[in-house]
Design goal:
166 residues; 72% helix; 0% strand; elongated
């Protein structure tokens, strides 16, 4: 206890209890990463779709023009960019969560997560009007974002390890 300031709490190393070497369940990490990626993308994609529908409904178009605009959403580059951005954010988050839960061999499990997410995404998008080039580019973006999430976890873990050893 400090005699000068008797009410000051004792000093302690709050990071000392942090277990940077812990290993989590690969099944849990991949499953939660996939749920975050897919559920987040679908949920916020639906919100974007509703907002776009409201925008179209208030734009003063005729019913035929509304129907045509709603069916041609894949040709609207702003909507494609926004929906791709939403999906990318949740892919990064899913990759980060997967890597942080598992906490070892992060890139190997990021690859497994990417395969799972791409397969589920492919099943969910069956019959869509996207071209093969669009599908391939979205697959590449998804894989890259999942790896980015894993990379961000590895980088943060290394920074914590360096701070702990310093």
């Amino acid at each position: 206890m400090n005699e000068e300031y008797p009410y000051q709490p004792p000093k302690s190393d709050v990071g000392a209890g942090e277990d940077l070497d812990r290993r989590g369940s690969p099944l849990k990490g991949v499953a939660l990463g996939a749920v975050v990626d897919i559920a987040g993308t679908v949920f916020f994609g639906l919100i974007l779709g509703v907002a776009y529908g409201i925008y179209l409904a208030t734009s003063g178009l005729s019913p035929e023009e509304l129907q045509a605009a709603a069916l041609q959403v894949n040709e609207n580059w702003v909507m494609m960019a926004l929906s791709t951005g939403i999906g990318a954010v949740f892919s990064v988050l899913g990759g980060y969560i997967c890597a942080s839960i598992i906490n070892y061999s992060e890139y190997k499990y990021a690859a497994i997560l990417a395969v799972v997410v791409v397969i589920i995404g492919k099943v969910m998008s069956a019959g869509s009007a996207l071209s093969i080039a669009q599908h391939l580019s979205l697959i590449a973006i998804t894989i890259g974002c999942i790896y980015l999430g894993a990379f961000l976890h590895v980088k943060a873990k290394r920074r914590r390890m360096h701070q702990r050893s310093a």
